[in-house]
Amino acid sequence: MGTAFYVFENEEEYTKMYKERITETVHHSKVLVMYLKLDKIKENHLWVITESSKQKERPRMERTIVHFRNGEHGVLQYKNGEEIQLQKKNIKFDKHKMRVKIMPNQRLTFRKSLLEFKVDRYIGDEIMGRLKSENQEYFYDTVMDRINIVLKPKITKIDLKPSHTRFPTKSQIFTVGHMNPSGTESSSSY
Questions:
Q1: CA angle (53 as vertex; 99, 83 as ends), nearest 5
Q2: Can you give the pTM of this predicted structure?
Q3: Does the pLDDT at position 34 exceed 90?
Q4: Where exactly are the structural domains of the chain?
């Protein structure tokens, strides 16, 4: 079986599903960086780099999604300079087709993405409108061999509505001897 893609609407849905496993690095490893390895003969490869293990491991290079568990220094011996470092804007979630597209809308490929993966499960409510890709977060679950994409990270809610009990009423603002909004002094209450 291959690596699965789970897409979560927000961080609350992600923490609800993972609960106490978020503290374990084998279940919750932040993806540090992703590379796209172009292959002219076979299918392109997606390299996912995390720091989930301190032991030296040899990745399985024949897979489409290659997981490097030792961080950036584990990738150096496999790099040859043709890899493309992916930014968050290069990874799109197509909500209509339920697919993750790597580098879509490229002029070189006639608007076809360089690599596509099927989303195995979407968790959350229906998506309305567009989502900015800069807000997405990526996590790797080593035990389940799963890439988790959180579309909207947790946003702290700030109550911007002040208490209306201390605001002056209209009769307090426009009283005799005070300035009205036009800047002239009023002689009577409005």
A1: 50
A2: 0.73
A3: yes
A4: 4-152
